């Protein structure tokens, strides 16, 4: 449950001090999804620059130079790869036909398999996310085709962002959330993993007072926003995975979960929550974003579980006794 955040300034009319504060506000707000590490990437003198540390965002000072056109940031909840080894933290650097930085929200589970099969080489970087960089590098180019190949080769739960040395920002939308806003009058795109993070950050700068429009991103979308603010799109084919978990109240063996749901079931134990409770909430109709909010605030989780179990308890009672009582 990491977070992605950043912005792209294509008109150059937003003051530097505002953009600098925006970066810090987004990073601080994104801590709700990870405090093990934080980092940003940007382009300086036509080269990718990365600043990251194994610390919470609020303990770091993000200070990209004046004239920076775009920021790509990440806050991390470590699942694989020691956070104390800074090379395991995001963003990662890569090189194909151009330099790029890469960040990932989610968990990938076929990294060891791809290395064992020789699809990608071994690496001193332990983080599962790094296979995304290697798969792009294997194609020898950074474009829609190589990003599609990467997204269709990895298995797991993800949304990726990529910033190349020309200040083009890519968003590869998997099953994990993404909230992208366009402030056309001031020539600014801002993105964050969730609407909650976005609203919290914008209120720190009063940017929420400016007119903005949400840019739709669906699972399977690949967006490219170039340095002039032009959006182009492509797609990849998302994968579905059969759940390893069965509900205590549902004997339907054909039950399927998408990747976002699957990973919630896989890592909820890290938050001290049983997977059967998460599956119950998903089956009842709560969205993945809502369940993630509950994992972060377990008072909400307990309240939702109490209500859902009460409702299902009534249904079971009526089914067994015909509602006679």
Structure commentary:
This protein has 325 residues and is of the alpha+beta class. The protein is built from nine helices and 15 strands. It has a seven-stranded antiparallel sheet with strand order 3-2-4-1-10-9-11. It has a six-stranded antiparallel sheet with strand order 5-6-7-8-12-13. Helix 1 (16-29) crosses helix 5 (195-203) and helix 6 (259-267) packs antiparallel against helix 7 (275-284). The longest helix is centred in the C-terminal third of the chain and has 24 residues, at 298-321. It is globular, with a radius of gyration of 21 Å. Mean pLDDT is 88; it is low at 242-255 and 316-325.
Count of structural domains? 2
Low-confidence runs: 242-255, 316-325
CATH homolog superfamily of the largest domain: Aminohydrolase, N-terminal nucleophile (Ntn) domain
What shape does the CA trace take?
A: globular
Number of continuous helical runs: 9
Helix and strand layout, with pairings?
Blueprint: E1 3-9, H1 16-29, E2 37-44, E3 47-53, E4 70-76, E5 92-95, E6 99-108, H2 111-116, H3 130-139, H4 144-153, E7 156-164, E8 169-173, E9 179-183, E10 188-192, H5 195-203, E11 213-215, E12 221-225, E13 231-235, E14 241-242, E15 256-257, H6 259-267, H7 275-284, H8 288-296, H9 298-321
Antiparallel strand pairs: 1-4, 1-10, 2-3, 2-4, 5-6, 6-7, 7-8, 8-12, 9-10, 9-11, 12-13, 14-15
